[in-house]
Amino acid sequence: MKGLLLIMLSLSLVCCKKIKENIQEKRAMEFITNGQWIVSSYLTPNGDKTADLAAYSFQFKSNRTVDALKNGILEMSGTWQDDQANRTIYSNFTSASYPLILLNATWTVTNGSETTVTATATVNDEIRNLRLLKK
């Protein structure tokens, strides 16, 4: 009897943990996909690239695609993937030219709020700093 009770309690805890993880994942997805994002800062050791991305806004979608809109018009779609455990977001615009190619990286989220995300990426031994603002 004690064994059955222990098994049921263990299964209950596992089930509750999975439900909690699903709720957190759903909230993160809603945060990312609700609204458009603009680049409010993009810094590299070679200079400030923010102005090069100023005409763009980005719409992340729940199907793991992201649209790059230049002055409100779709210029290119890419893909994205998040890893909540490691606090990273990978973005890729296949065959992108400058400046969208600047976003092709695995970004480690260092800070965030309801309207901003700050992240860093290392590309070719170069540390890049990105700040996104929800539009």
Please characterize this protein's 3D structure:
The structure is a single chain. This protein is α+β, with helices and mostly antiparallel strands and 135 residues long. The chain folds into 2 domains: 1-34; 35-134, Lipocalin (Beta Barrel). The protein contains 1 helix and 9 strands. The chain has one helix spanning 2-33; strands spanning 37-44, 47-48, 56-60, 65-70, 73-83, 88-92, 105-112, 116-123, 126-134. It has a 9-stranded antiparallel sheet, with no helix packed on it. A hairpin with a 2-residue loop joins β1 (37-44) and β2. The longest helix has 32 residues, at 2-33. The radius of gyration is 19 Å and the shape is globular. The model is unreliable at 8-13 (pLDDT under 50).
